[in-house]
Amino acid sequence: MSRRNPLPRRPPRGAGHERGYILLFALGLMAVVTTVVLGVSVSLRLDAQLLAREKEALQEGYVLQSAAAYTALQLGIASAVAGANPPLPEEVRRNWPLWRLPEPGAPPATAPGTAPSARGVAAAAAAGTTPTARYEATLGRQPFTAELQDASGLPDANDLTAQEWERLFALLGTAPARARELALLTMEFKSRVMDARGTAGFSSMRELLDWNEIPRALVRGGTTQVPLGLQDLLVVGTRNRKVRLDTTPIVLLRTLGNPTDEHLQRLAAMRRSGTPITAVLAQQWTAGTGLIAADMAGPPTAVTARLRLGSTRPTGAALVTTLVQQGGKFSVVDSVVDVSAR
To answer: For position 107, what pLDDT does the model report?
Structure first.
């Protein structure tokens, strides 16, 4: 009796289509998972890069703050040596590199392998002098460059009146109506800062420079129309209104007082000729102008230092610090990151 082989069972109708749907679903799920994993991977990589840059920028900030303290120390040493009684022997002073500000009208002291910055040149052109000295130093293994400028003739922004703010904005090229509006807004902004922080005004130039109401061109300067911006003309923390006839920019002389064209022509001639401006000459020149002359024979009472790290750094920014001299010692009263140096 022969045995018949059973015939293979046919798959239920539609089973092949179901397997196709499952395969398509699996492939789609894998594509979604792959996309999500790839996106997370890219996001993590970008976050790691941003974190590394933020870390380096933070380290750079710490180094620049240390450079500011080092600069204050160097200026204090130079002041102590200059006022030593009895004076130090000449051979000791000759072999001791001291950080000094150049004499008004003298060429800038250029550090080896460096050149005056474009902003320093613009400041010199507007002031009629070249009041910038450059020094190099190293903190640990990090080199940095310091550009020093006498700030004894720059006013404290907190001491400007509404009329002086209006005059300054107008002299920087702002239309009269807008200059008046900006002046009133600035005084209102200062009042809000005083009320919010309980201070006597701006605690740093950063508050003023980051304010969106003032056009960036007026803040930064460096152009043909506005060679010097507010960051070059004003400081905070010095409580100064006096002017130095050898270094104070003309725009500030016209802002703080009412010198005539004849006054300014005489001053320009003295600056060009290199005529030493004595205390007596300064008093004669300022008579009737409403300006207060600083002690022309005395040491600088304030210094601005533009600090930049020597190697290539992620931000490329410079730290502009204001240092005030009291009792022969210099201390940092304000620090502002200058992003225009990027």
So the answer is: 47
